[in-house]
Design a protein that fits this description.
Elements: E1 2-4, H1 36-39, E2 47-50, H2 56-65, E3 67-72, H3 76-82, E4 88-91, H4 99-103, E5 110-113, H5 123-128, E6 132-135, H6 138-156, H7 159-167, E7 185-189, H8 193-204, E8 208-212, H9 218-226, E9 229-231, H10 234-240, E10 243-246, H11 260-265, E11 271-274, H12 283-291, E12 297-300, E13 320-322, H13 331-351
Parallel strand pairs: 2-3, 2-4, 4-5, 5-6, 7-8, 7-10, 8-9, 10-11, 11-12, 12-13
Antiparallel strand pairs: 1-3
Length: 352
């Protein structure tokens, strides 16, 4: 966890804030002195807790006019300790925003999800307490869609093997034989904001794009058709896709959606791409499908167990590309999300 509070993205020891941390076991204590301007009675500032890393320039701008505490990816007990007087909570994936955390802040007014997924927040508490929730979805959709193609290309052209062998002095030009994306079938499971954008990219690439949604309709089929995506049933996507790309939220209906049975129904020799959530795929079943040769490869940006020290059960396989949940992790994307965070907070401040 990173805990800081002050301007210009510097640590608290070098800023107008005074912060002392003590860590006896799992506990810690914090003391903070407010900047002089706030002591003098400026009550138009918002009290903000940023629980995940966001664009540094955004933090610096917020700290010019607001009371900001950063506790990046802190455990629940530590979040509960710093949130009590906060009005706004900004977060991404990788941090648990449960009912206990939110209930510890009686003055909490607004939640800003700097991304799309809501599997790490207690939505029942949000609805019951009528908290204002903003999701900043579209900037990340572009980055995630592009990463889907990075993984597809990496797998199709065997870039991991080519790079590794060349670094060891082996020139295996004639041994590396990959595949084109052009002319192949791209199957999208979850043709929403991200999935439909990935589908549009696939159509531009010359792929035959098919997809499925949770609630199909004639209107949705027409919308997707206009983007070069044919709406078909889930089982048809599985059977026809050369590249199957997952873009669904994690909930009760999608947990382990891609299990041994579903993997067995995929086209032999196909590639699986997961940029949804780790719990959507049964990783042990995927391991079996990859080692038996039923699937040609997999690209996984999300994992059932994420974080420092966690090793994927797929890590030993040469036909797998693994990335640490970096789908939205581009400078451009985070800058755009940061600008939207500023806009949301400024609008809220003006309404106070």
């Amino acid at each position: 966890m990173l805990l800081r509070s002050a301007a210009n993205d510097k640590w608290a020891a070098a800023t107008p804030y005074i912060m002392a941390l003590k860590m006896p076991g799992n506990a810690w204590e914090k003391s903070m002195a407010a900047p002089a301007s706030r002591i003098q009675g400026q009550d138009d500032t918002m009290r903000i807790l940023i629980a995940s890393p966001i664009y540094p320039g955004t933090i610096a701008e917020l700290e010019k006019n607001h009371d900001v505490i950063c506790a990046f990816n802190a455990p629940v007990e530590e979040l509960k300790a710093v949130i009590p007087d906060r009005q706004i909570l900004v977060f991404r994936s990788g941090v648990d925003i449960n009912a206990e955390v939110m209930a510890s802040a009686p003055g909490l007014k607004m939640l800003i999800r700097a991304g799309s997924g809501l599997d790490n927040i207690d939505m029942n508490y949000v609805h019951e307490n009528k908290l204002e929730l903003h999701r900043i979805e579209l900037p990340g959709a572009k980055a995630v869609s592009e990463l889907a193609f990075a993984l597809m290309l990496g797998l199709a052209r065997k870039l991991r093997q080519a790079d590794s062998s060349l670094r060891q002095g082996h020139w295996i030009k004639h041994e590396i034989k990959g595949y084109l994306l052009t002319g192949k079938t791209l199957g999208i499971v979850g043709a929403g904001n991200i999935g439909s954008l990935a589908g549009r990219m696939g159509a531009a690439w010359g792929m035959d794009v098919i997809g499925c949604v949770e609630e199909p309709s004639d209107a949705r089929a027409a919308e997707l058709e206009a983007q070069g995506i044919k709406l078909v049933a889930f089982h048809d996507v599985l059977a026809r896709a050369d590249f199957l790309s997952l873009h669904v939220p994690l909930n009760k209906s999608t947990r382990n959606l891609i299990d041994a049975n579903v993997l067995g129904r995929m086209k032999p020799g196909a590639f699986l791409i997961n940029l949804a959530r780790g719990g959507v795929v049964d990783e042990q079943a995927l391991y079996e499908a990859l080692t038996t040769g039923h699937l040609a490869g997999a690209g996984m940006d999300v994992h059932e167990h994420e974080g420092e020290g966690k090793i994927s059960p797929l890590a030993g396989l040469d036909n797998v590309l693994l990335t640490p949940h970096i789908g939205a992790g581009t400078v451009d994307t985070q800058r755009e999300i940061g600008a939207k965070i500023m806009e949301i907070i400024e609008s809220r401040q003006a309404a106070e």
